[in-house]
Amino acid sequence: MNRQQKQFMKIIKTIDYSRQNWEKFYDFCELTSQSFRVCLSPYHDLVSKDIERIHKKYKKEDITKFDKMLDCMIESLEISYHDFLGDIFQEMELHNKYKGQFFTPYPVCKMMSQMTLGTNIKESFNESGYFTCNDPACGAGATLIAVVDELVSQGHNPSTDVYMVAQDVDQLASYMCYIQLSLCGVAAKIVHGNTLSGEIFSEWYTPVYFLNGWYNKIKIQESKDETNSDSTCV
Questions:
Q1: Do 112 and 168 fall into the same domain?
Q2: How far apart are CA 195 and CA 120, in angstroms?
Q3: Taking CA 66 as the corner, what is the angle to CA 60 and CA 71, rounded to the nearest 5 degrees?
Q4: What's the pLDDT at 45?
Q5: pLDDT class of 185 with cuts at 50, 70, 90
Q6: What are φ and ψ of residue 15, in 5° steps?
Q7: Which of 35, 64, 96 finishes a domain?
Q8: What is the pTM of this model?
Q9: Average pLDDT taken over every residue of the chain
Q10: With 80 as the cut, is the pLDDT of residue 23 above it?
Q11: Which domain holds residue 62?
Q12: Rounded CA gap, 173 and 170, in Å?
């Protein structure tokens, strides 16, 4: 655990002593996710109501502490890529509340990304100049963050060179992944849903998805893939 993660845990323990840490952690993740989303979402009023609902649960000084927790995250991820929230989730034993969830350690994720992507990621780029990555059981997003880590180490820009899709059946995991990929500057769609049954509860797009024109990029590539598929069938 680095200094920022320790500070994050120290702050959360001082928020509203009548509430358990798992509830405060969940509220932090939902509030932060909704705050990222509110400026970009077509459902501005609905998102604003979710933010207001959480604000009503806490005193003003406690909401300020949530802001300080986010500051810790930003500072930590600016220093290096890692699974900031997943590590804290495990360290504080919050997984006990969530049916025994255990996240893959970040060093293992990093090793897997290096083995999978090799020494030249650009070979995996499609004809539109980027590559895609999907994690159907993303947890807090450690595997995808490790891909970003490897991408940057090879001199690429995660905001322009990769599009990610992440799915998880757990809402909290979806929030954690959404926050972390947003702060890593990645264009991504995070799906709260059941990968096995195909059931989708909600979809969340990171800020970079909207800021860097990814909607059009993906539509163009899908059209090319569809054309290539039709040609192959013929």
A1: yes
A2: 30
A3: 130
A4: 62
A5: very high
A6: -85, 130
A7: 96
A8: 0.90
A9: 89
A10: yes
A11: 3-96
A12: 5
Q: Identify the domain boundary among 96, 129, 155.
A: 96
CA distance 124 to 225: 15
Q: Could you tell me if residue 30 is inside a domain?
A: yes
pLDDT at 42: 58
How far, in Å, CA of 89 to CA of 95, rounded?
6
pLDDT over threshold 60, residue 232: no
Question: Is position 101 within any domain?
Answer: no
DSSP E strands in the chain: the ranges are 131-135, 162-168, 187-193, 200-205
83-132 residue pLDDT tens: 999 999 999 988 755 555 678 899 999 999 999 888 778 777 877 788 89
22, 53: one domain: yes
CB 109 within 8 A of CB 83: yes
Say if residue 78 is in the same domain as residue 115.
Answer: no
- The phi and psi torsions of 159 (rounded to 5 degrees) equal -80, -20
Domain count, the chain: 2
Let me know whether 87 and 151 are in one domain. Answer: no
